[in-house]
């Protein structure tokens, strides 16, 4: 036996026992971006100051406080309208590359229309954007994160086709005022949520006509998106050099078993929940997914409607909507198991009845503080791969991913969640070649979680709602995320965070 032999045995044994092998150091590409997100109604407060108009969320939470879990509203929330400089300091401290925030339409256009442009609203977002640039933080701007001017809702909101033109007017103001300083725009955040829950569920404006109004809303959102994409390409792109996307909510739909029925049901669920918006925009067809068209047309006929409840695009609209994206914004939180539904409990007509599937979550999946959100990192990788193969590997910016937990600064479960999902993302990028350009944690701060009020906390920073200053304090997860954002790598077994990141894996 020579020395060489002993050395190789030693190396072999050392490799086997070295825990960093089982838990390797994973780094993201050089130009990969890390950021955090918020939305205007959820953090700004200042609901009626400095010329801001009323939004549908102002009206809804004031009119029906009992519908919100804790009977609260976003009147003050995190008071970011007055405390945005403090927020930028937190972003700086976190070391993120970008900040995704949304612009409040009624803060810019109090009447909804461009007859009255609110100077103070323009000033506010200019100051926020300038402060971000001063700190080397890239603004990623969502034009619409659910706070429609109430005036426009009084005309039918997203169910009225004319809204597409008003959205274009609003977008024009944004490009003109901020376009020289913004490289990433998102037209809409989660149209599935605000159309389905807003016009056929519990969210503002409180519409109760699923199967009709949610489809009208979706239709006009797609038309509006296409028009704004064209406007940017024709009038602003050359000079401003930015890119435009839309953010879709993409929960993974896993077949409940390997049976053909369950696989078909899962695919139907994917087409109804993400294909509804992705298919028209990300494919050359520029139209709804075939399965949606087929099921809704058939059901409408059976239910004696004169025409399909799913509207048709004109050929000009198809032209405008197809391929109207530079990147896809993707929000992902959780996974569902899917099988065919018996449709006994769904209303007729309704989106759920048309989709005709049954969704559930496994009891063993780790829980969050939101009933719908279970921790399933592998679903993230599958969702990214489905988008890659279905839509020809588009550029993706993960615009939201996060977990709600009970208040408290020691949040190892959040560290564990982020770490697990980032490892799945790393596999999707390096092993599966998905084109993902950045990752956004939702959210920078605790905030108004819509119908759940302040009861569900997603923040890397905790907000003390008892204090007039709305004091912000970093959680353990803020220092974990700071480590990831500044090194571009996930911790290894020798790093401090391993204690938290290894639990539940
Ligand atoms: C999606 C929405 O865009 C955001 O507003 C919400 O707070 C998070 N998901 C968490 O539910």
UniProtKB/TrEMBL annotation:
<feature type="active site" description="Nucleophile">
    <location>
        <position position="400"/>
    </location>
</feature>
<dbReference type="InterPro" id="IPR033132">
    <property type="entry name" value="GH_1_N_CS"/>
</dbReference>
<comment type="similarity">
    <text>Belongs to the glycosyl hydrolase 1 family.</text>
</comment>
<dbReference type="InterPro" id="IPR018120">
    <property type="entry name" value="Glyco_hydro_1_AS"/>
</dbReference>
<dbReference type="InterPro" id="IPR001360">
    <property type="entry name" value="Glyco_hydro_1"/>
</dbReference>
<dbReference type="InterPro" id="IPR017853">
    <property type="entry name" value="GH"/>
</dbReference>
<protein>
    <recommendedName>
        <fullName>beta-glucosidase</fullName>
        <ecNumber>3.2.1.21</ecNumber>
    </recommendedName>
</protein>
<keyword id="KW-0378">Hydrolase</keyword>
<dbReference type="Pfam" id="PF00232">
    <property type="entry name" value="Glyco_hydro_1"/>
</dbReference>
<keyword id="KW-0326">Glycosidase</keyword>
